[in-house]
Amino acid sequence: MAASPSIITRDTDKIAEPTGNIYQSVAIISKRAKQIAKNMKEELNGKLAEFASTVDNLEEIFENREQIEISKFYERMPKPTAMAVEEFLNGEIYARVREAEEAENAEQ
To answer: pTM value?
Structure first.
């Protein structure tokens, strides 16, 4: 992903620019971050589900190492909020406003 995992100070004017309202921009970013987090969690759970077993044996030690590596990979990834902010600032997020669409449809 293109987003940096470290903390970055953002210009609120740039965030508010696409919508004209900082609160609407933050709401859009928040919804996208939740989508990203949900997808990442499902992906991680799917990968870790392969290691689920009820039997304790020596092979489980090696499987635990693989689980640890998978977990470390996901920990090193940028946070969903950072990824969502990058997508928003790059214009990769499409957001529609229902009130505006409903008003347009009512006028026609």
So the answer is: 0.72
